[in-house]
Amino acid sequence: MCGEGQQRGRVNLKILIEETLKEEAANLLAGNDVVLFATHEDDRAAITAKAQGADSMVLRWPLTFPVDAEFLAACPDLKHVHKSGSGLEHADVLHIDACTQAGVMFSNNAGLNADVVAEHAILLTLMAMRPDTLTHMNRLREGHWDAAPAADVPRPRTLVGKTVGIVGLGQIGTCVAARMQAMRVGRILGYQRTRRFEQAYFAGVEWVDLRELLETSDVIVLCLPLSPATTGLISRELVAAIKPDAVLVNVGRGGVIDEAALFEAVRDGRIASVGLDVLEVEPSDSPLMKLPNAFVTPHTAGTAVEMQQIQRQAAVEAAAEFARRRRPPRLVNPQVLRSAALRAGWLGAD
Predict the structure, then answer these.
(1) D-isomer specific 2-hydroxyacid dehydrogenase NAD-binding domain location, by residue (predicted)?
(2) Is residue 282 annotated as part of the catalytic site, yes or no?
């Protein structure tokens, strides 16, 4: 590995980029040696060969093989890996601990789509609060003007004055809280293991424990990532604690809630209705999707025309920042900066 002085004096870096990002790479990485790879065509041997001498690697989708200790050992010059998107649930193909142990920085696009996901959360909330809306739309598409309420779904209700509980107040949860305030809800309850003053103050959040939030809220919005700490967090016991007239929305990850228990509760009317953008297994054949009081979208909350370009740009900008010998933004494993194994030694913490 080159010494710190050699690294600082080096003009160009070799950067391995997913081929669909080549336009952004041409604009942002001029002067560097950019090598393209194809996620769905290049196998482990091909990408390992291309990664020889590469300083940074930008993924748009998980590779067909794991970025693990073996791969990192075979690419000894690789110092930084960036993954577009924000999910960290692909533990079988993105070994973040292996990156940290090998001294490789790992960054992603966490938080960039917070506004878009929050908008989708509001959409699902309103659908779940007014579950006969879809029935009326479908009747009109079939040529029938029929305002009669649907027989098998709860009657529509308003958000005004309701108690909203948000589980997970990171950037998405905070954006949801701000939008709920604008819709004149009564209270906003929040649960998060690490409580931040600015979230409580600016989003008008009252911190409570998880059971109290589930027992008290008229609307529950889950905004949790999937991790060992959050997997199965909303257990069968906690699903049973939710009020019978409550609405539950999930724009985080499906694995944070016991899906079988949720299905039974919604089917049996022990939860009024749900709006779900995520399920435990995706693609899914969950019976939840067939319930008339369940509104399910195929993990599209973060999708918008504008967001696609933002995500692409940010992915390549992370590599461009690294090429300038700066710490990449949205670093997932900042502890690597204090490691003696850090491959980009010039970025080590003081």
Answers:
(1) 130-301
(2) yes
Share of residues in the chain with pLDDT > 90 (%): 84
The alpha-helical segments, DSSP class H, found in the chain are: 4-9, 22-28, 44-50, 69-74, 96-102, 114-129, 133-141, 171-182, 197-202, 210-216, 236-241, 259-267, 305-323
CB-based burial of residue 25 (10 Å sphere; 0-12 exposed, 13-18 middle, 19+ buried)? buried
Task: Tell me, yes or no, if 299 is annotated catalytic.
Answer: yes
- 109 to each of 55, 72, 251, 316, how far by Cα in Å? 19, 21, 17, 10
pLDDT at 350 over 80: no
Question: Cβ contacts of residue 318 below 8 Å, gap of 6+?
Answer: 58, 80, 82, 107, 328, 329, 330
- CATH code, 269: 3.40.50.720
The reply to whether 59 and 184 lie within a common domain is: no
Q: What does the pLDDT look like over 28-83, one tens digit per residue?
A: 999 999 999 999 999 999 999 999 999 999 999 889 999 999 999 999 999 999 99
pLDDT at 270 exceeding the cut of 60:
yes
Q: What is the DSSP letter of 64?
A: S
What is the model's pTM?
Answer: 0.85
Q: Dump the DSSP string for 21-62.
A: GHHHHHHH-TTSEEEEE-TTT--HHHHHHHTTT-SEEEESS-
Per the domain annotation, does 60 fall within a domain?
Answer: yes
Q: Which residue has tokens 């008008």?
A: 204
- 3-state class of 314 per DSSP? helix
- Residues 291/264, Cβ–Cβ less than 8 Å: no
| Active-site choice (195, 282, 326, 338) | 282
Catalytic hit among 80, 82, 95, 253? 253
pLDDT number for residue 153: 87
pLDDT at site 150: 85
Its domain, for residue 147, covers 114-296
Per the structure, the count of domains in the chain is 2
Query: Is 89 a residue of the active site?
Result: no
